[in-house]
Design brief:
2 domains; mainly alpha; homodimer; DNA-binding; Four Helix Bundle (Hemerythrin (Met), subunit A); Arc Repressor Mutant, subunit A; 3-stranded antiparallel β-sheet
Chain lengths: 206, 206
DNA sequence: TTGACATAGATTGTTAACAATCGTGGAATA
DNA sequence: TATTCCACGATTGTTAACAATCTATGTCAA
């Protein structure tokens, strides 16, 4: 979620056991769950590797988000009274604070979390779950194909969307979100630069 | 998926081991995955139970489907050339055949599978996965709240939707699908009749 | 020098025994 | 008779040893 682990990084059981001070069973459970969410890939007798989405995967993820998020945001803006906007307002503040202090991983995490919280605000458990999966996948994709600059830092766009929701402007909110997603997607260059996995243990312990 | 296991049925590890002739590890892996999909619930130190969706869950599932499926079908109908309609056509035939021979579990399974295949036809891996989860959940819900009659047997509605797609009528297809979902949902009476779990082992082996 | 092969080490997959927890039934008491 | 407590059995959770598989290194031959 924070793009600290590069795709194709091997996650060996023994290392994870040592790092987290946990038995192998726990690790294997966790790996199985992560693989069921598509964040890692379990290769038989070879181990677990951080998922490396293809270009086709990337397109599919954005297509799926384009299908779900616009009507979702529209619905939110249609009756913003019943939902808890406070969480979202607070979140925007957190994002701003992280941006000011230039905390890269924090910015990335919060940037994705905004969309998750948007889905959570709908009050629909399943939409929330779906969104969470799509957002984490998006994070992987941006880490892989993203232009290293501010691709994941859409500045004030999140705030604008929230404002449109608060002021009951469904169409504007939907439009803003669509262009926001397009922004993110067009920021990708689709040249799968296979970055070399790094030290690891230190990364995990951060 | 075939509604052969009633909600709240306990799935004990030892029984599953004996029934399928498999070690406990495999069973536990399977149970963990099923729980991650929300089909069963893992209670700590108590075991696995077939999920028992609440009314709120039921509403959420249908709301999520209402959000996703209409635009999905619309997209399919907009350019039905690029997709493989043959699979869907064959499927309708299977449904008809099962209905003729009155094979209850088969009808239920195929009835859900139609929607899954609709999502598969989109070619989008993630939409397919989301749809599959929603459909299986719907199956549980219909089994719980469904009027025991033909709630899950919408007769020719699937065929109509497919035809609208084939003849490039996006709006009609979308409209048909919406009313189809409403049909299913309105067929529920929302009185959580907690049916008593049955013999089990025999059911599993079928 | 390169290629194939074999062996050794490391890693994952599986099994079985052990520990911990929970539900049930019975006994004792009010 | 009803209720509480204790103990037993059953079931789940965990651990550790074992088996199977893969990767890598080194040797031998062409």
């Amino acid at each position: 979620m924070e793009q600290r682990l590069a795709p194709n990084t091997k996650l060996s059981e023994s290392l994870l056991c040592k790092t987290f001070g946990v038995g192998r069973m726990r690790i294997r459970r966790a790996l199985l769950l992560l693989s069921s969410q598509g964040l890692i890939e379990l290769q038989s007798n070879r181990g677990a590797y951080v998922a490396c989405p293809s270009k086709s995967d990337a397109n599919d993820v954005f297509a799926a988000r384009m299908l779900i998020e616009p009507p979702l945001v529209r619905n939110l803006a249609q009756n913003p009274d019943v939902i808890d906007l406070r969480v979202l307002v607070d979140h925007i503040e957190l994002e701003d604070a992280a941006r000011e202090q230039n905390e890269r991983t924090e910015i990335i995490r919060l940037s994705g979390e905004f969309h998750t919280k948007l889905a959570q605000a709908s009050g629909n458990k399943f939409i929330f779950r779906m969104m969470r999966e799509l957002v984490t996948r998006t994070s992987l994709i941006v880490g892989l194909f993203g232009s290293s600059e501010d691709a994941s830092c859409p500045d004030h766009e999140h705030g604008d969307i929230l404002q449109a929701i608060q002021t009951k402007q469904p169409q504007k909110a939907e439009k803003l979100l669509i262009s926001h997603l397009h922004h993110i997607q067009s920021g990708l260059d689709m040249k799968s630069r296979t970055e070399i996995p790094e030290d690891l243990e230190a990364i995990l312990l951060t």
